[in-house]
Amino acid sequence: MGSLPWLAHFLCFLLFHLHFQASSSLSFSFNSSTSMLCQHDQSLALLQFKKTFSNWNSPYTKTKSWKEGTDCCWWDGVICDIGTGNVIGLNLSASLLYGTIHSNNSLFSLHHLQKLDLSFNDFNNSQIVSQFGHFSNLTYLSLCSSDFVGRIPLEISYLSKLVFLDLSGNYDLILETTSFKKLLQNITQLQELDLSFVNMSLVAPSSLMNLSSSLAFLKLVSCKLQGKIPDMSHLSKLALLDLSNNHLTLETMTFEKLFQNLSKLREVNLNDVNMSLVAPSSLMNLSSSLASLKLEHCGLQGKIPDNVFQQPNLQLLDLLGNEGLNGSLPRHDWNNSLQSLSLSRTKIQIHLEHDFINNLRSVETLDLSACNFEGSNLELFGRLTQLIELRLSHNNFSGQIPSSLQNLKKLLELDLSYNNFNGQIPSSFENLQQLHVLYLQNNNLSGQIPNYFSNFTQLSLFSLANNLFTGPMFQVDRLLSLYYLDLSNNLLNATIPPSLFTLPQLYTLVLNNNQLTGHFGPFKDNQLGYIDLGNNKLHGRIPSSISKLVYLSFLILSSNKLVGEVPSTICKLKSLQILDLSNNSLNGVIPQCLGNFSNALSVLHLGMNNFQGTIPEPFSVGCSLRYLNFNGNQLRRRVPPSISNCKILEILDLGNNNIDDTFPHFLETLPELQVLVLQSNKLHGLVKGSSTNYSFSKLRIFDLSNNMFSGPLPAEYFNNFKAMMNVGVNMKYMGSPNYNYDYSASLTFKGLEIELVKIQTLLTTIDLSSNKFTGIIPQSIGKLKSLKLLNLSHNRLTGNIQPSLGNLNNLESLDLSSNLLVGRIPTQLANMTFLQIFQVSHNRLEGPIPEGKQFNTFDSSSYEANLGLCGFPLKNCNSEKRQQPTASKEGDSESKIGFGWKPVVAGYGCGVIFGVAMGYVVFKTRKPMWLVRMVEGKRRRKPRRSNN
Ligand SMILES: *[C@@H]1O[C@H](CO)[C@@H](O)[C@H](O)[C@H]1NC(C)=O
Ligand SMILES: *[C@@H]1O[C@H](CO)[C@@H](O)[C@H](O)[C@H]1NC(C)=O
Ligand SMILES: *[C@@H]1O[C@H](CO)[C@@H](O)[C@H](O)[C@H]1NC(C)=O
Ligand SMILES: *[C@@H]1O[C@H](CO)[C@@H](O)[C@H](O)[C@H]1NC(C)=O
Ligand SMILES: *[C@@H]1O[C@H](CO)[C@@H](O)[C@H](O)[C@H]1NC(C)=O
């Protein structure tokens, strides 16, 4: 969390000028401008090159100064040889050039070029054409971060005079083995090489053995290299080595050789290199020149040697995430040049006492998150007055926040999150007004948020989430740098200061799960991109000024008390990806434009409101909705066929409306559909499945309950439900791939209306109950082996209970009650070992109830009102010739809703409830409360932030 996450991961060298200063052939002391130094053909070539770019005339590009009739040697970025007038250098770094460089570009006629820098432009997926290999005198080439793609041509290896090569930061470049080998063979004077982010997955790391021994600077970050790092001890001039973020391993011998032979090494970054085979004692022999050592997540195991901390010139030591690293720290003789130290997520024991703190006197950046502390005198940190960044999160520290931290006058970043600090934020914190980053989330802090934060005008990232703060927020008017604010999951119970919505830099605003009241807004056209105000007590209307937030991609206003209509100006929010207005009292007609205002929209949740009218349509071609939920409104008429334009739709929940239509067969064409809920509408007619093999093949939740469908059960669909046939193993919750947003859906389980706050990907259910289905239970249903719930109750099904149901050995709940089923209960059903709820009451069944396993656990309510069932828990089959029909104990009113509360409670009594034990159902409902309290999951939605 050190640097702001949206900063670039790396920087190209930007060394162009340094290189040129070293070059003696250059000088620009012209006395007369009358004689043209520039060669005419080269001048023309440059002018043509300039026209390659669509924005060549923009005032910001260097090429703006390139004018016909003037001496090209004076043009911005152009360097000539003073003797010959040849163009030998071109520096167009960060010139905002936009366009494609083809192989016939006039650039390639500038044969005399020795240095070429085109870094930080946008060449719009240009290939690096082979002509780049034809600048025979080139010593310096940088194409860094300029949107080049494709293969790096073999011809690059013709540049045999190269001293400097930087192709980094072009995310879709590929370097193949042959090209790399040739490059290493032919470019023998190379001193600096950066291929970071180039895909080198085909290159064997052993080829690094052939790197030119003149190399001083080697950076291969995130190159997808995999395998063993070879012996590189011949690189005796190497000063910087960065092989981080690949899939490399390093062995003890190689590691030791590296540091023994490379006496010039100053900076080493081996983050994510697997060093589990390297004994930490090898760190004892680091070369004395070393200034920076980064070994994050290297899998080092064992005791850390003292010398590491006593290394004479070491300024930066980063051991983060080596969870097997232990031992303790030397008490004395630390090197006093150490400026940055991270022992985060190691087991190295830290005695929090005077000696330790004395050793850190010069440290500016200190990361001791999730460390192995002994001692709790946190006030000692107040002595480290050089500190700029201090991270102490995830340490179980308790008590008050140490007030001595107020002495850290240089501190810009403070992270005390994920501890057990309690009480109020100390008043001494008032003195830390210079802070840019303050993380106090996930503690037990209480009281009001101090007002003095209104003076923290430098704050950029600020989180107090998951604490117990109450009362109003602080004044934010002057926090003009604030970018990220998270106060979610507290007890804030006042209005939101209107100025919050108009802060110029604010991008992320997370206030969900509080008790905030009043109205929100109005909005100005600022940077806001992420707003979560869910689960509060906000009222009033959605302000139409929200349409000014052109960068808004995430908007959650769910579970508040909002009223009125949704302003149709909301459709101006073209960047919106997640829109959740569910569980309010919004009414009126849903703006029709919501179906097609933006193909960026991924989640649209308007469930549990009072919307009337029809479902918005059309949904546009190219619609990229994954989640669509209108459950619990009063929407009428039809399911719009244009929904089939949303080809990646995964969840469609239109339950609990007044839709008066036939079954929307066109949904079959949605290849990704996993959840389809149409329960409790006025849908009617046949549900006749398609014969196409792929229809509904990913469907896992199919709920048509409580409609007026008729005719036979959709046996063809049962044949196509491939996802219900394969028992999955991958336990995940369904959610947005880009945001931390869990998909939810409303289902009815056994007469309980339940909102699944999260949907486990292993949950597979079919609910066709309370319709007018007739005919038999088709055999094909026995193929759906991963089904966990099957409810066919309250229909007019006839015939026998299908014995193939016994194959469904993942089934936990089977309800066939209130049909016209006859015959015996097949003994095969005894094979369903997870069955916890079994209901066949109100049919015409007779004969013995299967014995054993789960059948020992069902009580008589499972069987009531049949013709003649016998055996446990009813009367013994042999004792009487003829069984009396078992009577309903609870009376008719209850049997109408399947089976009522009692049997569910009984289910709990046995120590089991559907799904909860397995963890794949997290649900929430407004009734009954005891159930809510037991299983309700706390909603936590946060924007994803990378840790670095
Ligand atoms: C390349 O450099 C050599 C030696 O400095 C010089 O003789 C030759 O003319 C240069 N070639 C070009 C195309 O500039
Ligand atoms: C090395 O570069 C020269 C041109 O400078 C070229 O002719 C030769 O083919 C290259 N060799 C390899 C192995 O690429
Ligand atoms: C903000 O700082 C000013 C000047 O130091 C001080 O007078 C004022 O009381 C502070 N405001 C708050 C709310 O602490
Ligand atoms: C907010 O909550 C606190 C603590 O429960 C209470 O004392 C205060 O009266 C509440 N304020 C409002 C405006 O409801
Ligand atoms: C129960 O399952 C086992 C294994 O799947 C199978 O061999 C057996 O025939 C089944 N028994 C019944 C009664 O279906």
From TrEMBL:
Belongs to the RLP family. PANTHER family: LEUCINE-RICH REPEAT RECEPTOR PROTEIN KINASE EMS1-LIKE-RELATED, LEUCINE-RICH REPEAT-CONTAINING N-TERMINAL PLANT-TYPE DOMAIN-CONTAINING PROTEIN. InterPro entries: Leu-rich_rpt, Leu-rich_rpt_typical-subtyp, LRR_dom_sf, LRR_N_plant-typ, RLP23-like. It is a single-pass type I membrane protein. This is Leucine-rich repeat-containing N-terminal plant-type domain-containing protein. The keyword Zinc-finger does not apply. The lineage of its organism: Eukaryota, Viridiplantae, Streptophyta, Embryophyta, Tracheophyta. Residues 1-25 form the signal peptide.
